[in-house]
Amino acid sequence: MITNRPNPNEAFPNPNIPSLCFIKNVVKNPRIIIGDYTYYDDVDGADQFEKHVTHFYDFIGDRLIIGKFCAIAKGVEFVMNGANHRMDGVTTYPFYVIGGDWGSAIAPVKDELPLKGDTIVGNDVWIGQHVTIMPGVHIGDRTFLHTLSPWVTLAVWSESASTTNSSLICWN
């Protein structure tokens, strides 16, 4: 029986490896939900995980949900719904994001935005270095996303692996 396990409520479970951080203990944004024992490993600041969640605007309201026992490597980026631009107008320029009179004059209602929903990572997922996960993607349990996978743009099934070509998904 294991009696001396790491405390999931400590940010840095192993003082000998300061690049490894249980990120649920350092994330401040309430729309980023992290399960127990999920870690981010980055020698440049594992406690700076939120810097790798981009285009994450309050007015959109999407969430990043990551399950338990996930391993996230350095350089991972989660691109959220704020990166999506409308494609049905006279321009793709996001006037409503820029603000000022532009934003109030031609701001779309939320239902008109090309939102993809929450980004969800299951339990026991291994995300290799420099993987980019696009808005609204759902990644199943026990999944491996290979280092330098260019972009994860579609759902990844449980018990599968994504190689360096994001269109090639292998599963058990």
Describe this structure in words.
The chain has 172 residues and is mostly beta strands. It has a domain of 115 residues: Hexapeptide repeat proteins (UDP N-Acetylglucosamine Acyltransferase, domain 1). Helices cover 6% and strands 22% of the residues. The strands form 3 sheets. It has a 7-stranded mixed sheet, with no helix packed on it. It starts with 19 loop residues before the first strand and ends with a strand.
Summed up:
The protein has about 170 residues and is mostly beta strands. It has helices spanning about 95-100, 100-105; strands at about 20, 30-35, 40, 55, 65, 70-75, 75-80, 120, 125, 130-135, 140, 145, 160, 170.
Question: Could you outline the blueprint of secondary structure elements for this entry?
Answer:
Elements: E1 20-22, E2 32-34, E3 39-41, E4 53-54, E5 64-66, E6 71-73, E7 77-79, H1 95-98, H2 100-106, E8 119-121, E9 126-127, E10 132-133, E11 138-139, E12 144-145, E13 160-162, E14 169-171
Parallel strand pairs: 2-5, 3-6, 4-7, 5-8, 6-9, 7-10, 8-11, 9-12, 12-13
Antiparallel strand pairs: 1-3, 13-14
Can you tag this structure with a few keywords?
mainly beta, single chain, 2 helices, UDP N-Acetylglucosamine Acyltransferase, domain 1, 14 strands, seven-stranded mixed beta sheet
